[in-house]
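Comment thread on ticket #2218

A.B. wrote:
> Attaching the input chain for the structure job we discussed in standup.
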Amino acid sequence: MDYVAPSPKGNSWGLGGTCVNVGCIPKKLMHQASLLGEYIKQAKSFGWNVPDNPIISWNKLTDSVRDHVKSLNWGHRVKLREKHVDYHNLIGTLRDRNTVVTYTKTDRPEEKVFTADHIVIATGMRPRYPLESEVPGTLRHAITSDDIFWLRNPPGKTLCIGASYVALEFAGFLTGFGFETKVMVRSAPLGRFDQQMAGFVMNAMKEHGTEFLLQCVPTRMEDVEGRVKVTWNDAKEGKQNSDLFDTVIVAIGRNASTQNMGLEAVGVRMDDAGFIIGGHNNDHECSSVSNIYAIGDVLKDRPELTPVATKAGKLLARRIFNQSLEQMDYEMVPTTVFTPLEYSFVGLSEEAAIARYGADGIEVYHAFFKPLEYTVPGKKADNCYIKVITDHSPNGQIVGMHYTGPNAGEVMQGFAAALRCGLTKQILTSTVGIHPTCAEEVVKLHITKRSGIDPTVTGC
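C.D. wrote:
> Ran it. Output below, let me know if you need it in another format.
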């Protein structure tokens, strides 16, 4: 059972959830398109005869991205049929712990009633707007990640509001397309991530052409001759500023999609924000009602990542129907931020490691490196950086690994598996690198932060 309520701008989509339709998939394709524009410019240094200022066709790009998304929508429906799963594009509400009443839309009468021994809630989240009383005009004039991939016209001069990876990723590829782009941040970008690495990401974005408005909070949005005038308070400068934009994207967080589902009425415990509290009956995904489960973003205090929800769902199905005892392991989950300089990590941030083990209880090995592909075009590599965090056990158990550089997700995926197997610094150091790659710099790490020695890699 699946139903997508239209966004405030009227956009909705097919089967596959946020990731397929308005998340990971279209975002990564946009990111790739932006990288290709940069590669074209660099190609001249490698002898290619290419135009000086390549121009992207927004309509061609978005049409191609939407075509791929639609193929995935169809593919999911085919897979459901192959597995003999009935699909219903309906809204569902719990009548009791075993009964779901469905509607075609919120103002229609009852359509169908389903009963089940087990019910799984996997409704995810939707973007959050600021309150209209706090920022008048936002709902009317701003869009969210639910809308950007559906724009028929180029976004033009764009303001991204928020410090999340979503705001930074969008700003990164829009800058790469040649659109003037600013990011408005109340405090610091990527606040829940390792802050040293977040700094490298922001510095690289600035060098890429994105402007950051730090310690700024919007106060009003209004129409001025077809453009959006945004007024904001600048805490750093102690004054109020304003500017005109063609597009304003709000990326300040997401709300759990658990409203009007009858969950509280049947006894499902949720926090004040609507996230389902799991961990009951010694099962990570089990709610306070023993036959109702939650997976993915609606589950409180779990990584908001598609692969996490997918893995948790598979393991839950095996426990329910195949007598498995295996629980989802929410530790050592890798992820990547697809900004112009990509950032990937697995395990603890340096701040979290210090909080857990103490500053004297960890060792941080690090290096600044220059990817070989940066050398010929003379691309700056000041923010390409690796750090590995270990505890002080005899072999140095690795508790966190962080990387900013090209192909970050591809680099980190294999190391994530190794960390889950108990990778130590001793084993990492004894591993032969693949030359010449960025990933080999990870196994070559030998300088600690504590030593104070310059960690810049020299030579090949």
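A.B. wrote:
> Thanks. Noting for the ticket: The first strand starts at residue 91 and ends at 96.
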